[in-house]
Design brief:
Blueprint lengths: L10 E4 H5 L6 E4 L18 H13 L3 E4 L6 H12 L3 E5 L6 H5 E8 L2 E8 L1 H6 L4 E5 L6 H8 L8 E3 L4 E3 L6 E6 L19 H4 L4 E4 L5 H11 L6 H22 L9 H14 L2 H8 L9 H12 L6 H9 L1
Parallel strand pairs: 3-10, 3-11, 4-7, 7-10
Antiparallel strand pairs: 1-2, 5-6, 8-9
Helix pairs in contact: 8-9, 8-10, 9-10, 9-12, 10-11
């Protein structure tokens, strides 16, 4: 596998042919891969609107923010587009542990010629901005305020990154692209669903050129994805089971959005559940080990009711349900 070079894309691909969306857009791409290019998932299902926004980000250097509930595959969507363009890609999670020094850089002690010297090491932003890389800022709305202002200058088209600590000005590479994913579009934890998210400066949100929402797949589409990942379930009985699994997953998502439960089943969880069914040969046992045990015991009666609605049987013992209700 070839290593990442400083050269930009050298070919163009048809968005309609590669991604199956109704557009005449030609997107820059790389003819060869590199170690930073994500692996292609041949079973991945692209959302047309979100794919169009991401492709516009790559083709026209538009800063693109993808919003949606967790587990919808926001970051994966960007990665799978990048994979088919052979575009180097890097993800960073803007959790509370990411500091300004992590993004900008800091002085580091090194040993050179058996002597200890201090040398400035570029942080994530200057390193990636100087290269043909798609940088994904995960959990964008969870970033600390002092960290977010470091990013603000890069959000402007052709915006330069000024490192005041070293009196350096970094001109972004022409093929540098910036994406982000968020749960709340900078509005904070209004519904109590995402603790730790911040109310972001609206002047910064305004700098994002494109904002698009990614929702969960349609039930029939999600079922096809599960069957593609767990082909042993592609039988008459298995397809019925997977349909029931997707049904309860959607019920948990609705209950989560209304605040009735604090944990939902993402498509990834459904796939894991289907895989665990192969191990335990019992959907109920696999459900408990895959999802139920991750949930607050006080919410078990609600989840038990959802399971009963889809499978016509209870997933937990009556004593356990009562214990959860008393908490």
């Amino acid at each position: 596998m070839k290593r990442t070079t400083m050269q930009g894309p050298d070919i163009q691909v048809s968005a309609k042919e590669v991604f199956g969306i109704d557009t005449r857009l030609l997107v820059p791409a790389f003819s060869s891969t590199s170690e930073l290019v994500p692996k292609i998932d041949p079973d991945y299902v692209f959302n047309p609107e979100v794919t169009s926004a991401i492709l516009a980000g790559f083709a026209h250097n538009r800063r693109t923010l993808i919003q949606g509930l967790h587990g919808t595959g926001k970051s994966t969507h960007i990665e799978q587009v990048a994979a088919r363009l052979n575009w180097p890609c890097m993800r960073i999670n803007l959790d509370g542990h990411i500091s300004r020094l992590d993004l900008v850089g800091k002085d580091t002690l090194l040993i050179r010629d058996e002597k200890q010297v201090t040398e400035f090491q570029d942080g994530i932003l200057p390193w990636s901005a100087a290269r043909p890389i798609a940088l994904i800022l995960d959990e964008y709305d969870a970033g600390r305020p002092d960290v977010m202002f470091v990013i603000q200058r890069l959000l402007e088209k052709d915006g330069k990154l000024v490192l005041t600590d070293k009196n350096r000005v970094i001109e972004p590479h022409p093929s540098f692209r910036l994406f982000a994913t968020a749960n709340t579009v900078g509005l904070g934890n209004l519904k109590g669903l995402y603790h730790g998210t911040q109310v972001l400066n609206q002047a910064q949100i305004d700098r994002w050129n494109l904002v698009v929402t990614l929702n969960y797949l349609k039930p029939e589409t999600e079922a096809k994805v599960v069957l593609a990942r767990v082909p042993s379930k592609n039988t008459e009985r298995g397809r019925k089971l997977v349909s029931q699994m997707v049904e309860i997953a959607n019920l948990t998502r609705k209950a989560f959005s209304t605040g009735d439960i604090s944990t939902l089943m993402s498509p990834r969880t459904v796939i894991t559940w289907a895989e665990n069914c192969e191990i335990f040969s019992d959907p109920k046992t696999a459900f408990r080990l895959t999802f139920l045990n991750k949930c607050d015991e006080a919410e078990w009666p609600i989840i038990n009711e959802l399971y009963q609605r889809c499978f016509n049987e209870e997933v937990i013992e009556e004593s356990s349900a009562l214990m959860g209700a008393e908490r």
